[in-house]
């Protein structure tokens, strides 16, 4: 019976893939006949648009993965490099996606002289900026929390280089890498609209994809087409969650540290498990990929062993490599210094020009945006805290609702913004409430998932002890659950505020049916300068003010609060 079911699953998936390929090809023909880069809003092109958007997301993710494994490895294993790599990463994550628009447009588009390939690379780069920082922080955190006895064991057994990375660092980072990959893909979907229509002032580049389709239909007020496009995106996200992320999430739990006996050896379950572990055809693909990766790993290890010098030459090679590393480091430092000086000179020249009136409104805009963020944060906390406690203590609810929330977190709420704005403006007559609710969509999921993780991390013996002492209701929450959740609450708050600052650029400036709705704030100032006037003075002034505010808040408020929470509420065995 299982064989028949697995064969049927293979046939169904093969039929779905063939059908998708056929309709995607037909959409490509429609787009080719239309000519140019104009976004066609016909339903028939949606499969092709979904394929193009997925390819951009995949390209950006692969770049993010390479960046994560190299940057995170260096920061997590080299204490000297960590001192300057982590502050740089902290600054990079504080820059909203619009802050990378000038670099993306003027580097990639100019490099390829306005051809489509340059615009595609610019879009992939913009999606990369919404994915990479979260993954890198997660991998870095995994490397810095490896138990000391494992590190000492690798030193004792002389496990170094590539072998040490493959057998210690990479397995240690897999759980965080998988979890943060899910969140990074969600972030990429969230800003897909901004990444597929690239505009600086009057110059605009549009790419065929779901993001550009959604924004074009909402700008024209074609809500029916918008909902069909959104449904296509939801189907794509759901399929990825079932057949990729859920199996990977369960598989990644095999790499968690176990301090007791036995360990863990869990296999994924559900349709994704049956497809990749049991269904013929797809099972062979998985085995082939695993064997190919193992072969490449062995090949790299054998090549390193053959090229490795003898013991008498090893020290000489180490000194030579150290010199080469220092030369490369100095070269990169000089290149970075040169770029920094050129950038400062360009900024200086820009600010020597007569200052535009919008620059003087930046402090007030920051204040208004901060109040919206605070209101959205409190609303997010009001519903995520009780829901996380409920889900974390009920396994059935956890198994049912977690995939639902993961799908909802991946749906780009930016596609629904015009509809929300249209309804709320009709009720309230202004954009303030709408902007708060739109910012909330960029904050709430970071809080929810971190709070759920905090509840799930409470040791079972601690729960049993609380039950033995008769702690129930509010007493149990106050003495056990809430203190255990504090570190996760702080971590979720840091990432939620980061997501909120980024969401401002799409929450305070919305175009619907040919009308532009704005709420005064730093996000709307940045949007109007980017899409309207193209004033680099206002763009860079807004970016610098936002970056300085975020970095100061992270360094002097959130980081100190986290250190205090880690000291007072850390669960020790």
What is this structure, in a nutshell?
This protein is mainly alpha-helical and 573 residues long. It contains 24 helices and 4 strands.
Textual characterization of the structure:
The protein has 573 residues and is an all-alpha fold. The chain is built from 24 helices and four strands. It has helices at residues 2-34, 46-77, 79-94, 101-111, 116-129, 132-144, 148-156, 161-190, 192-196, 210-219, 223-252, 271-278, 282-307, 311-352, 357-360, 362-392, 395-410, 417-428, 432-441, 444-456, 460-468, 473-507, 522-533, 536-569, and strands at residues 197-200, 203-206, 509-512, 515-518. The strands form two sheets. The protein has a two-stranded antiparallel sheet with strand order 1-2. The protein has a two-stranded antiparallel sheet with strand order 3-4. A hairpin with a 2-residue loop joins strand 3 (509-512) and strand 4. Helix 10 packs antiparallel against helix 11, helix 18 packs antiparallel against helix 19 (432-441) and helix 22 (473-507) runs parallel beside helix 23. The longest helix has 42 residues, at 311-352. It starts with a helix and ends with a helix.
Give the helices and strands, then pairings.
Layout: H1 2-34, H2 46-77, H3 79-94, H4 101-111, H5 116-129, H6 132-144, H7 148-156, H8 161-190, H9 192-196, E1 197-200, E2 203-206, H10 210-219, H11 223-252, H12 271-278, H13 282-307, H14 311-352, H15 357-360, H16 362-392, H17 395-410, H18 417-428, H19 432-441, H20 444-456, H21 460-468, H22 473-507, E3 509-512, E4 515-518, H23 522-533, H24 536-569
